[in-house]
């Protein structure tokens, strides 16, 4: 650093400010320092800086699955928000959602020197009611019922499912069939409960729940059965991919969407408006979830006393497209 300072004609403190991305350095001075760093081949020693500051500029992320759309969008948002704050990400996937697996992942991250941890839960624990995280590191959890003990960020699954179900009822459908996500999923459980409660509040019949696995193939399998039932005029799928499978089954059976059967999804994936017809769905703001996770985690890192248990809910909203319409007249379904 002293060599860089001498070559650039500045103080070591100025070099330090440039290295750490401080804004109180004018552009010409910054360019001279960067040019001197390049000429000498100087690279900041992150380990030395961590020893001095007590921070590692790294955030650990624990995930139970890398295959679901929601988890990957959340991970992307967390990584982007962390990068904007000057942090890198260390990811540890966990094969099964068990307490031992979570504790092991936390301990591995602690050994790798991270400043805090984001846990993207999605699934209920297999071996206990809820998750317990070893103490000693700031933690934020996504999609969980752990808000009584930890900082949790989630989208409003309940309101989103209510909006989807109520939209179909308001169009005049007598009831709404539901293809749920896996029983182990927090978000699937909340969506299913909200769908059921919305039907009951409207005095509408509550059909049996059809459980899928988030993939289009499971939506297709249930869609084949639903297409064969002339009483089915409205379907709410717990994610867009299963809705796509349902729509394929309906098309193959010759049942028009939305003239004969209306379909609503959940997530608002980028391709939703490219479905045929374009899919009415519930939008989740994964970017806001990621930003809030990092914001709350950095607050704990900077001030451990700032860790306040509780759940922050990010609003969801219904995106109306062309896959929903009033039910067909009796005898034409």
TrEMBL record:
Ranges for domain HTH lacI-type come to 1-53
Question: Which InterPro entries does the record associate with it?
Answer: HTH_LacI, LacI/GalR-like_sensor, Lambda_DNA-bd_dom_sf, Peripla_BP_I
Q: Which GO terms describe its molecular function?
A: DNA-binding transcription factor activity; transcription cis-regulatory region binding
The entry's keywords: DNA-binding, Transcription, Transcription regulation
Q: Which residues form a coiled coil?
A: none
Domain of life from the UniProt record: Bacteria
Q: Does the keyword Transcription regulation apply?
A: yes
- PROSITE patterns in alphabetical order: HTH_LACI_1, HTH_LACI_2
Note whether DNA-binding occurs among the keywords. Answer: yes
Question: What name does this protein carry?
Answer: LacI family transcriptional regulator
């Amino acid at each position: 650093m002293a060599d860089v300072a001498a070559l650039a004609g500045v103080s070591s403190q100025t070099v330090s400010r440039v290295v750490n991305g401080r804004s109180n350095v004018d552009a010409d001075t910054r360019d001279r320092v960067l040019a001197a760093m390049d000429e000498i081949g100087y690279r900041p020693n992150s380990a030395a800086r961590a020893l001095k500051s007590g921070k590692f500029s790294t955030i650990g992320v624990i995930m139970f699955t890398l295959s679901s759309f929601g988890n990957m969008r959340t991970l992307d948002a967390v990584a982007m928000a962390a990068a904007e704050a000057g942090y890198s990400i260390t990811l540890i996937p966990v094969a099964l959602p068990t307490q031992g697996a979570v504790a092991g992942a936390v301990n591995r991250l602690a050994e790798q020197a991270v400043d805090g941890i984001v846990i993207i839960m999605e699934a209920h624990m297999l071996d206990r009611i809820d998750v317990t995280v070893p103490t000693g590191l700031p933690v934020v959890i996504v999609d969980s019922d752990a808000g009584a003990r930890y900082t949790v960020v989630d989208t409003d699954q309940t309101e989103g499912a209510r909006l989807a179900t109520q939209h179909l009822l308001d169009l005049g459908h007598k009831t709404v069939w539901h293809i749920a996500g896996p029983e182990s999923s927090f978000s699937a459980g909340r969506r299913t409960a909200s769908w059921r409660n919305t039907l009951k509040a409207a005095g509408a019949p509550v059909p049996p729940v059809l459980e899928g696995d988030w993939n289009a193939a499971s939506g297709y399998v249930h869609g084949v059965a639903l297409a064969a039932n002339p009483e089915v005029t409205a379907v709410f799928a717990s994610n867009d991919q299963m809705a796509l499978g349902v729509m394929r089954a309906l098309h193959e059976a010759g049942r028009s969407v939305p003239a004969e059967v209306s379909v609503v999804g959940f997530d608002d994936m980028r391709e939703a408006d490219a479905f045929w017809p374009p899919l009415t769905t519930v939008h989740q703001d994964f970017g806001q979830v990621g930003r809030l996770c990092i914001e709350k985690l950095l607050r704990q890192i900077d001030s451990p006393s700032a860790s306040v248990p509780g759940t922050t809910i990010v609003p969801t909203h219904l995106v109306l497209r062309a896959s929903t319409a009033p039910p067909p007249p009796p005898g034409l379904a």
